[in-house]
Design a protein that fits this description.
3-stranded mixed β-sheet; binds copper (II) ion
Length: about 200
Amino acid sequence: MSVTSLGLATKASAGTIVGHVQARSASEAAGAGDAAGSYGSRRYKFLEKIDYGALRDFIVHIDKVEAPLPAGQPPPKGAVTQRDGTFVPHVLPVVAGSVVEWPNADDVFHNVFCMSETTPFDLGLYKHDPGKSVTFPQAGRIDVFCSIHTKMTCIILVLPNPWFARVTDKNPPCTATPKTSPSVPTIRAAKPSRSCASSGA
Ligand SMILES: [Cu+2]
Protein backbone atom coordinates (compact mmCIF):
# COMPACT_ATOMS: atom_id res chain seq x y z
CA MET A 1 0.00 0.00 0.00
CA SER A 2 1.38 3.34 -0.91
CA VAL A 3 -1.18 5.83 0.28
CA THR A 4 -3.37 6.19 3.29
CA SER A 5 -5.39 9.36 3.46
CA LEU A 6 -6.84 10.84 6.59
CA GLY A 7 -9.66 13.30 6.14
CA LEU A 8 -9.56 15.62 9.11
CA ALA A 9 -12.00 17.96 10.71
CA THR A 10 -10.09 20.09 13.18
CA LYS A 11 -9.62 23.58 14.52
CA ALA A 12 -6.18 25.11 14.99
CA SER A 13 -6.69 25.70 18.67
CA ALA A 14 -8.64 22.54 19.40
CA GLY A 15 -7.30 19.54 21.20
CA THR A 16 -9.32 17.01 19.27
CA ILE A 17 -8.81 15.64 15.78
CA VAL A 18 -11.58 13.62 14.14
CA GLY A 19 -11.06 11.86 10.85
CA HIS A 20 -11.76 8.99 8.50
CA VAL A 21 -9.12 6.58 7.27
CA GLN A 22 -9.25 5.59 3.62
CA ALA A 23 -6.65 3.53 1.78
CA ARG A 24 -6.04 4.29 -1.89
CA SER A 25 -3.61 3.11 -4.54
CA ALA A 26 -0.82 5.44 -5.62
CA SER A 27 -2.54 6.01 -8.99
CA GLU A 28 -5.82 6.95 -7.32
CA ALA A 29 -4.02 9.32 -4.97
CA ALA A 30 -2.36 10.96 -7.98
CA GLY A 31 -5.77 11.51 -9.58
CA ALA A 32 -5.26 8.90 -12.27
CA GLY A 33 -8.23 6.78 -11.24
CA ASP A 34 -7.96 3.07 -10.58
CA ALA A 35 -5.21 2.50 -13.17
CA ALA A 36 -3.83 -0.54 -11.41
CA GLY A 37 -2.29 -2.07 -14.55
CA SER A 38 -2.74 -5.23 -16.59
CA TYR A 39 -3.92 -7.57 -13.88
CA GLY A 40 -6.31 -9.21 -16.34
CA SER A 41 -3.37 -10.53 -18.34
CA ARG A 42 -2.45 -14.22 -17.99
CA ARG A 43 1.10 -13.07 -17.46
CA TYR A 44 0.13 -11.71 -14.04
CA LYS A 45 -2.57 -14.20 -13.04
CA PHE A 46 -0.61 -15.33 -9.98
CA LEU A 47 0.25 -11.80 -8.90
CA GLU A 48 -1.66 -10.52 -5.90
CA LYS A 49 -3.87 -7.51 -6.57
CA ILE A 50 -4.42 -5.36 -3.53
CA ASP A 51 -8.04 -4.60 -2.63
CA TYR A 52 -7.55 -1.23 -0.98
CA GLY A 53 -11.17 -1.05 0.12
CA ALA A 54 -10.76 -4.24 2.15
CA LEU A 55 -7.68 -3.08 4.04
CA ARG A 56 -7.99 -2.89 7.81
CA ASP A 57 -5.73 -2.19 10.75
CA PHE A 58 -4.48 1.37 10.45
CA ILE A 59 -2.16 3.44 12.59
CA VAL A 60 -3.09 7.10 12.93
CA HIS A 61 -0.42 9.49 14.17
CA ILE A 62 0.66 13.09 14.15
CA ASP A 63 3.69 13.64 11.94
CA LYS A 64 6.51 16.20 12.10
CA VAL A 65 5.95 17.10 15.73
CA GLU A 66 8.70 15.96 18.05
CA ALA A 67 8.02 15.26 21.69
CA PRO A 68 11.09 13.61 23.27
CA LEU A 69 10.60 11.23 26.14
CA PRO A 70 10.99 12.85 29.58
CA ALA A 71 14.46 12.37 31.06
CA GLY A 72 14.94 10.13 34.05
CA GLN A 73 12.02 7.83 33.32
CA PRO A 74 12.22 4.26 32.06
CA PRO A 75 11.53 3.99 28.31
CA PRO A 76 8.15 2.69 27.15
CA LYS A 77 8.07 -0.99 26.24
CA GLY A 78 6.38 -2.83 23.41
CA ALA A 79 6.48 -6.41 22.19
CA VAL A 80 6.24 -8.36 18.95
CA THR A 81 5.65 -12.09 19.49
CA GLN A 82 6.70 -14.80 17.08
CA ARG A 83 3.67 -17.09 17.05
CA ASP A 84 2.55 -19.70 14.51
CA GLY A 85 5.19 -18.51 12.08
CA THR A 86 4.15 -14.87 12.10
CA PHE A 87 5.08 -11.70 13.89
CA VAL A 88 2.22 -10.46 16.08
CA PRO A 89 1.29 -7.65 15.63
CA HIS A 90 2.31 -7.09 12.04
CA VAL A 91 2.73 -3.35 12.67
CA LEU A 92 3.79 -1.99 16.05
CA PRO A 93 3.78 1.78 16.59
CA VAL A 94 6.14 3.03 19.30
CA VAL A 95 7.52 6.41 20.29
CA ALA A 96 11.23 6.99 19.62
CA GLY A 97 13.32 5.71 22.51
CA SER A 98 11.06 2.73 23.19
CA VAL A 99 12.27 -0.78 23.89
CA VAL A 100 10.67 -3.63 21.94
CA GLU A 101 10.87 -7.22 23.17
CA TRP A 102 10.81 -10.17 20.77
CA PRO A 103 9.54 -13.32 22.52
CA ASN A 104 9.37 -16.54 20.50
CA ALA A 105 6.25 -18.50 21.46
CA ASP A 106 6.79 -21.16 18.80
CA ASP A 107 8.42 -24.53 19.23
CA VAL A 108 10.67 -23.87 16.24
CA PHE A 109 13.60 -21.56 15.77
CA HIS A 110 13.13 -18.10 14.36
CA ASN A 111 15.56 -15.33 13.65
CA VAL A 112 14.79 -11.62 13.97
CA PHE A 113 16.85 -9.18 11.98
CA CYS A 114 16.68 -5.75 10.37
CA MET A 115 19.00 -3.96 7.94
CA SER A 116 17.72 -0.41 8.44
CA GLU A 117 20.28 2.39 8.45
CA THR A 118 19.11 3.79 11.77
CA THR A 119 18.68 0.62 13.80
CA PRO A 120 20.25 -2.50 12.27
CA PHE A 121 20.14 -5.63 14.44
CA ASP A 122 20.26 -9.40 14.28
CA LEU A 123 19.02 -11.35 17.31
CA GLY A 124 20.17 -14.70 15.94
CA LEU A 125 18.32 -18.01 16.11
CA TYR A 126 16.29 -18.80 19.21
CA LYS A 127 13.05 -20.35 20.46
CA HIS A 128 11.12 -20.09 23.73
CA ASP A 129 13.16 -17.04 24.62
CA PRO A 130 11.37 -14.09 26.25
CA GLY A 131 14.45 -11.95 26.84
CA LYS A 132 15.55 -10.49 23.49
CA SER A 133 14.95 -6.75 23.13
CA VAL A 134 15.94 -3.82 20.89
CA THR A 135 15.85 -0.07 21.58
CA PHE A 136 14.63 2.20 18.76
CA PRO A 137 16.10 5.69 19.32
CA GLN A 138 15.18 7.34 15.99
CA ALA A 139 11.87 7.90 14.26
CA GLY A 140 11.30 5.99 11.04
CA ARG A 141 9.93 2.81 9.56
CA ILE A 142 11.79 -0.35 10.52
CA ASP A 143 11.18 -3.45 8.38
CA VAL A 144 11.94 -6.67 10.26
CA PHE A 145 12.39 -10.19 8.90
CA CYS A 146 13.11 -13.80 9.88
CA SER A 147 16.08 -15.27 8.03
CA ILE A 148 14.50 -18.74 7.95
CA HIS A 149 10.90 -18.01 6.97
CA THR A 150 10.75 -15.52 4.13
CA LYS A 151 7.06 -14.67 4.66
CA MET A 152 7.69 -13.58 8.25
CA THR A 153 7.85 -9.80 8.22
CA CYS A 154 6.71 -6.99 10.46
CA ILE A 155 7.10 -3.26 10.77
CA ILE A 156 8.13 -1.19 13.77
CA LEU A 157 6.74 2.29 13.18
CA VAL A 158 8.96 4.51 15.31
CA LEU A 159 7.16 7.81 15.78
CA PRO A 160 8.47 11.20 16.95
CA ASN A 161 5.76 11.64 19.58
CA PRO A 162 3.33 9.49 21.58
CA TRP A 163 0.18 10.76 19.91
CA PHE A 164 -0.88 7.79 17.85
CA ALA A 165 -3.71 5.29 17.77
CA ARG A 166 -4.43 1.92 16.21
CA VAL A 167 -7.69 1.63 14.27
CA THR A 168 -8.91 -1.91 13.68
CA ASP A 169 -12.16 -3.83 13.35
CA LYS A 170 -11.55 -5.36 16.77
CA ASN A 171 -10.79 -1.94 18.19
CA PRO A 172 -13.64 0.28 16.97
CA PRO A 173 -12.46 3.70 15.85
CA CYS A 174 -14.44 5.50 18.49
CA THR A 175 -12.51 3.75 21.22
CA ALA A 176 -9.06 3.89 19.63
CA THR A 177 -7.62 6.23 22.22
CA PRO A 178 -4.03 7.42 21.85
CA LYS A 179 -1.73 8.22 24.70
CA THR A 180 -2.51 11.76 25.72
CA SER A 181 -1.84 14.37 28.32
CA PRO A 182 -4.07 17.38 29.07
CA SER A 183 -1.90 19.59 26.86
CA VAL A 184 -1.79 17.47 23.71
CA PRO A 185 -4.38 16.60 21.08
CA THR A 186 -6.61 13.58 21.03
CA ILE A 187 -6.73 11.65 17.78
CA ARG A 188 -9.82 9.82 16.65
CA ALA A 189 -10.17 8.04 13.36
CA ALA A 190 -12.75 5.99 11.54
CA LYS A 191 -13.08 3.97 8.39
CA PRO A 192 -15.40 5.26 5.69
CA SER A 193 -19.11 4.68 6.23
CA ARG A 194 -18.80 4.48 9.96
CA SER A 195 -19.99 7.19 12.29
CA CYS A 196 -17.89 8.24 15.21
CA ALA A 197 -18.94 10.50 18.04
CA SER A 198 -16.17 12.75 19.30
CA SER A 199 -15.36 14.23 22.65
CA GLY A 200 -12.82 16.70 23.96
CA ALA A 201 -9.34 15.79 25.12
CU1 LIG B 1 10.94 -17.71 11.34
